[in-house]
Amino acid sequence: MSEHDIAILGAGMHPWGKWGRNFVEYGVVAARTALADADVAWPDIQFVSGADTMRNGYPGYVAGATFAQALGWNGAQVASSYAACASGVTALATARAQILAGFCDVALVIGADTTPKGFLAPNKGERGDDPDWLRFRLLGATNPTFFGLYARRRMELFGATRDDFARVKVKNARHGLDNPYARYKKEVSVDDVLNAPIVSDPLGLLDICATSDGAAALVVSSLDFARRHGAGDPVRVRGISTVTPSYPQTTIELPNFATDSAAGAGAGPEHGFKESIAVRAYNEAGLGPDDLDCAEVYDLSTAMELDWYEQIGLCAPGEAEKLLRDGTTTLGGRVPVNPSGGLACFGEAVPAQAIAQVCELTWQVQGRAEGRQVEGARVGLSINQGLFGHGSAVIVSR
Amino acid sequence: MSKTRVPAVENWFTTDESAPALLGARGVESGSYYWPTAVAVSGNPSAPGEERRPVELSRTGKLWSWTTNHYAPPEPYVAPDPFVPYTVCAVELGLEQMVVLGQLATGADPARLELGMEMELVLGPLYEDDEHEYVVWQWAPLRSTP
After folding, report:
1. Which of A66, A160, A267, A292 is most open to solvent, judged by the fewest CB atoms within 10 Å of its CB?
2. pLDDT category, A126, cuts 50, 70, 90?
3. C-alpha dist (Å) from residue B14 to A386, B51, B102, B131
């Protein structure tokens, strides 16, 4: 516990799905649920930290103000953050900084999205200087293309199989069966996964997460405010990481055409990018992988969940399949991963997803994750990757 | 009459059909390589603002990974109708110590790819219109590889 901790007073979500309504509606539902959970009245919120969406026009670019308006202008300070998949945690980090600097006592962190069907696509127009546009134009390098490259690499390097990847989906589908906020609540078999149409070989349709509508919100405060509010022993945010890669970034990442060149870069960084995201969060929290009771990792693909086991330090490179197969990361195991069901059950609602991960950790350490509770959970980590060098991790504890 | 072959993007690669190369740059202080030069890539932070001199990147490297896409991507990819699956390769250049993406050479069989095999840069068609065939860099397995 440190003077850099803040309290999570409340968490709320709008169920994930493909509802086709305005993202603001979902955000308002999530916000009101989080406020009720925190027993904080909306007019008392002093800072609104919104995570932006790029798919819903101008209101999405100024999400903080959009939600503040929808909830009713209350004169709070406001900020809007965009960091691709890491947007939600960037919004949380902004709120934490405001709280720890003493500029506010209690804040609302919120993200919501309405997504179109199919692949996430770049912005329209002739955008010859935008690598995100060019990767589609010149390579046809969709997001699943990158997931496929990682998955194939895992198979070739470590002997992973499509069967291993399928077992990640089977596990997460089971985890999410009773999660009221999950979009997919259905058992899936290994054969279902293996027989699904191939998207980016070796990954099939059920190996890759969908895009969803959804919203998530958190009410966070200073520890003093929490105490005055009657929450003497609140869930705490112990560490937040939003680090960039360190040069040279030698793993090919969305949306790049090439990695950095390690020539002329000396020994290079101690950790790869994704490892470094976790390391920073562990360091802030004064905790390590052995302290985790559960983790919410960004399973954009089944194979990527296995990569995360190694990148967050649950095991050495090449050992993730063993952890999966021996049940370590399944509910009831030593450190269940994605007890919520993960992106496999949710699909991705970009600006809400990282916040949703923290909501799940909050409920887990409070013992309120009905139907998917990690017994005795006290410490949890969430982690994701964004685009263009964004990524994030959060450690919460009770 | 055959269509004129033109690069799908200017100044990313040479158009020498027999031995094309990617047009990169090298930092004069750090010795780090940069490609593509037309979009932002990370500089070497130990040599901020260093001068970058144009250089052709190695034409061969080792296959780092690959994947075949079985669904047509969204625009601005120009997909043929009917759609033809295509493979994207990641190839590690030895001298530059960097991994470079590129489509697998048109006609090459993705089933014969193996991790670490030698790959060579070639030019191949990306899409066409009434007058032009737009070409792009691709990776082809080197024939000498067993």
Report:
1. A267
2. confident
3. 33, 22, 15, 21
Alpha helix segments (H runs only) across A299-349: 302-311, 320-325, 342-346
Report the pLDDT value the prediction gives residue B2, as an integer from 0 to 100: 80
HSE-up (13 A, CA, CB side) for residue A119: 22
Of A129, A198, A260, the CB nearest to B98: A260
Pair A53, A215: CB distance under 8 Å: no
Residue A136 to residue B41, Cβ atoms within 8 A: no
Distance from CA of A238 to the nearest CA of B (A): 30
Which residue type does B77 have?
Y
Domains of chain A: 6-118+213-234 (3.40.47.10), 131-209+238-397 (3.40.47.10)
DSSP letters spanning A343-396: HHHH-B-HHHHHHHHHHHHHHHHHT--TTS--TT--EEEEEEE-STT-EEEEEE
Q: What is the pLDDT of residue A61?
A: 97
**Dist CA A368 CA A371 (whole Å):** 9
* C-beta atoms surrounding B112 within 10 Å: 9
Neighbours of A155 (CB within 10 A): 18
Where do we find the tokens 């069907």?
A117
In tens, the pLDDT along A372-395 reads 999 999 999 999 987 789 999 999
Mean pLDDT, to the nearest integer, of A166-195?
A: 98
How many other C-beta atoms can be found within 10 angstroms of the C-beta atom of residue A376?
A: 8
Nearest to B86 by CA among A151, A143, A120, A140: A140
| Contacts B61 to A, Cβ<8 Å | none
Q: Where are the domains of chain B?
A: 58-141
